[in-house]
Amino acid sequence: MKPIPIPTISAAEWNAMRAAARAAKPLKGHGVRLHRDAAEGVTVHAEAHDNPRHPWQLSCRWRHDPKLLPARGEWVAAIEPGFVNGRDVTIRVRTDEGDVHPALTDEPAPEITFGAYRDPAAPAGLAAGNGGQIEQQAGEGYPAFFDTMGVRPSAKAGAVGAELEPERKRLIRAADVVLITPRLSTRQEVTVQNPATASQSVTISTVFVTDALRGAPSPHRIVTTAKHVPPREPDQLERLLGAYAEPQADEIKLATVYFVSPPDAPENAVPDATWSVHPRYFVFRNLNYATEAQIPDQPSEPITLRTGLIAGGADAIFAQLLATPNDTLNRLTAFLRGSRFGGMYWTPGMLGMSGVKRPTRAEPAQGSAGLDPAARRRQREAARARKQLDETPPLNPPFPFLKLAFDPWFFGIEADPKQPPA
Amino acid sequence: MEWPEAKAGMPVSAAMWNKARAAVRALKVIAGHGVRVRPTPNGTVVSADIAPPPWVHPFKVSVSGNQATIVPGFVNTEEARIDGVPLSGTEKLPPPVLKWAQTKWDKEGRGYIALELTCDEDWILVKDKVEVVQVAYYDSEDGTAPPKGAGGNALAGGVPGLPGKRARFPLAMLRRRSSGRIDVFQIVQGDLNHRADPRDKASEIARHFFS
Lengths: 422, 211
Description:
The complex is a heterodimer. Chain A is an alpha+beta fold. Chain A is 16% helix and 26% strand. The longest helix of chain A has 26 residues, at 313-338. Chain A starts with 10 loop residues before the first helix and ends in a 32-residue tail after the last helix. By secondary structure, chain B is mostly beta strands. Chain B is built from one helix and 17 strands. In chain B, the strands form six sheets. Chain B has a four-stranded antiparallel sheet, with no helix packed on it. A three-stranded antiparallel sheet of chain B has the order 4-5-10, with no helix packed on it. Chain B is elongated. The two termini of chain B are 53 Å apart. The chains are: A alpha+beta, B mainly beta. Strand 2 of chain A pairs parallel with strand 1 (29-31) of chain B, so a sheet runs across the interface.
């Protein structure tokens, strides 16, 4: 083909055509595979998605409702039914007659409402700097995917109100989807006898708290919340002091849903129909659940004192003296462990890969303990627990097949999922 | 192939134009397997709608009427059975089909295709005693209550046992709809391991764990 002579083409016209050609370039999308041939064009192949919908997968939509002001609607999500111990899970749904708790397997599929959001790009708080000036703390942040969408950068620690990359004007909001399993909890009551009327003694007793179990709409339910804060388990010192009760539920975060605004949305805007939704999942399979009430830790090491004095004869005397404290220590340790009802989640039959999902424990922030010895000790314990969790191998989860003396079998919950809590 | 860039006052050469023409030609959308294309003045709409291939995994349940087929699966390396016949069949028998006269439902229209296994006196899984059954309740015999002393499965977790050192674990849930349709929700998607946590050796009460 002979070249065609072109008298004159303006640069603007040429570049506009270049831009149009660039905009027409096919890009790889969901379920599509492209084969580019420089001479012949682009071949598009559709590929069936090899990963069908998984349990807990969300289908979000904007539900228009003129009665809900000022947005005239709300974001809701249908959840692909998932199972815990083979049971289906419920959610709370508002109706004109009141709240109901349908199962995810009900028909029509119930939808859960997002009622509150957080701004993961906003500063986490304010603090005084070394020079006395007020500084903002870094924001929670969001997945790097949203950088490409032009979402406003997450706040950095430092001067208040510093604007980063002003050309990125999309806002972001987030909400968490959490599975809750109400359970028995315990707290210790410490009674100090009056030495004037009785012998000086301290009694530690375990009180079982069943409020959440009795009021639970179902054995397992899903809620949405602006930000999931894992329930904090008391440490052994707090148990001994009777200062803190166990949480009455185990919780595991299933997903975080991010909402992205159109450009130039008002600063305090809340998600509406113009926003886009992007779920991020943390659990992809059905779950099993059990409390750890029957999982003992390693027996505590007895206190020993070996000196070798009097040709070793003193060691026998020390051992005899320490026998009573050691016995008390063992009984106390067994008592504290036997009254711990924290649970764990795991995935059954996950293609041979058993995944353990322990509920995350709330921990004090690094470096926030100050000089308080108790707080610093708790921080060290939390760090050790975190390290232990990190070292949990992905295969062969620790089966809860050993037991303690405490008998948890006399309690149960058979609440009707259809009935709201009393 | 990139469209060549021009600058103000720059003459368009034959080479540039040919590059531009080749660039436009390279953008032509060609329908491949399973794809529909619809040219419009504003572009070419590419549509693809291919159903995903069925995921055949262990214990996959397919229900048709009053019978179900189950893909072979294993518990503690022991193949599950239907009426004593392994799910994969034998040299003389074809893969069995689970049949029942009337579907068993609970009061809310739930039923289960479940594994029912039996443990020996040491709470070890008995070989040849891993059966697939259709039941209305997997954690009790008749749904009235869990076994005495078992306490329900919501508190302690796991699956409460049944009398005779038996336990059931649901493979799939059946939901009966008002239209008469039956929806199947697959629960287990792989082979299983089982361990029992008995309260004591003399008791028949235990928690059963599947992973």
